[in-house]
Each structure stands twice: as C-alpha cells, then as structure tokens.
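Form 7-S
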Amino acid sequence: MHTSESSRSGGGKGVGLGLALVSALAFGGSGVAAKPLIEAGLDPLHVVWLRVAGAALVMLPLAVRHRALLRSRPALLAGFGLLGVAGVQAFYFASISRIPVGVALLVEYLAPALVLGWVRFVQRRPVTRAAALGVVLAVGGLACVVEVWSGLSFDALGLLLALGAACCQVGYFVLSDQGSDSGEAPDPLGVIAYGLLVGTAVLTVVARPWTMDLTVLAHSADMNGTPVAAGLLLGWIVLIATVLAYVTGVVSVRRLSPAIAGVVACLEAVVATVLAWVLLGEHLSAPQIVGGGVVLLGAFIAQSSTPAKGSAEPVAAGGAESRLSARENAA
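Output:
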C-alpha cells in the first residue's frame, strides 16, 4: 500500500478520522483489561508477551504475504518492533501495575515536551510560542495529576515507566509515517505484522514466558469485585486492543495530518480514565481531573501548532520529517 500526500485530503481524511477514532478507543481499553490479569498473578511482562505473541500469530499470514519487506526495510521493521511494539507495551503495562491506568496514560502526554525539548536544545531549532505554551500547560497539568504538593504520592518508578512508554511512542508514530510523503511507504499491515514478530522475539528474551503461571488464564480475574474470565480479557487485549488498534492506528497516521490525528488520539486517555473509573474503581480527585484536562489541552495546542510542510515558520514538533512525533504522544 503506497499512501501519498494526496490521500490526506478529501475522502482519505474522512476515512483516516474514523480509523483514528477506532484506534484510540481500542488502545484505551487495553489497560483496563490487562490490570486484572496482573493483579491475578501474571507478571506485567508476561501479559505483554501474551498480548504481542497472540497478535503476531493472528498477523502471521500477512507477514508471509509481505516477506519482501525483510529485504527492503529491515531497519524500519526492527525499529517498529523494538520501540512501537515491545517498548511501548512493556513500559505501559509495567507502569499500570504500580500506578492508576489513567495516570499512566496522562504521563505519556509529556511526549510533546520530549520532542520539543530535543528539537530546541539538541537540534537547536526554534519552536513556536504556541507549542511552548502547550508544553507548559501539559507539564503543569501533569503536576496536578500526580499531586506533587503531596510529595509525589504516586510510585516514582511507576511514573518513570510511564515516561518510558511516552518515549517509545515517539518512535512508534515517526516510524508509522515513514515514506508517506514520497508515496513510497511500505504496506502498513506488513510493517505491523513484522513489528509484532520482532516485538515477540525481543520480549521472549526479556519476559522468559516459560516461567509464566499459565493456570491464571484458566480462572477468573477480579475486576473491581466482578469475576471475569481471564481468557476473555486476554482475547480482548490481543484482538481488539492490539490487532485492531495497531492496524487502524498506523493506517490513520498515513491518512491524517498530525494535528487532526493528535486531537482524535486524545480520546484514548479519556476512554482509559473513564473505563478505569467505572470498571476498576480507580477514582481520581477533582484536582487530578482538572489536571488531566489541562494535559489534554496542552497536548492539543502543541500538536495543532505544527506549521504546514514547507513553511518557514519555527517548528513545533521537529519539522516536516518528524511531525508525527508530536501526534504520537497522544496515542
């Protein structure tokens, strides 16, 4: 599938908008389904391995179909698997084992700050005032979410793990957009399929799944007092929160501008927080809710301030090459 800039207009944007919405909703439900499994006795890395390996098995026929990618884009496949699959999922699932699902996702909204900090201080390129304002708002909102006035009441390691997920998300979106402007983008389904296979290989070494207690999957997991079949939760994580989420997410990145995609992706944090509140009983305080809203507002401002391609204006998220980096943090 070769997606050019022309597919980001007209009907292509309409389809992309719908796909981005589906992806945000699907990704948003992953933490709520995974946390009961972790609390039932599965190690977070084992849950990640089951998620990625299961999705890789489902996508295996597509990997065979697009095997030419192994020769033409080996670096892209390796990077996507390492960062966009193994890194994102491992850091995120490890973080939700220590901090609330909603907080873990909101921490990922520091990604615009990471990208802009790299652009401003490492690449020494100017950034727009709106982008800087967005970052300030996001950081300030995050301070409310983690309640810094309470002496950082949340687990510090859990917050660092969530930040690690944000860093890997940058790589996910940058790699998802590779070649889309030149019309030479590799088929997204092939990239996802091999990314999942690479992720499975990496996680197999790290997670050592042979030490997993598989008996947990034969029983029920507790979801805020309600028993739910562990196998059902795993099926949701694999088919909906991974296969469907990745396919719709990567395809939408190819069709949308980073600003539009970033706005839609903000729904992931909203969905995850609401589901965690309703299904897991993870209630957030009033300051945390307000802070979460400020984080989303800051992320929106930072993402939507990216200048058009070819513009001479200061960059907001690493310029045309890495404009997807700004959007990625939202997913």
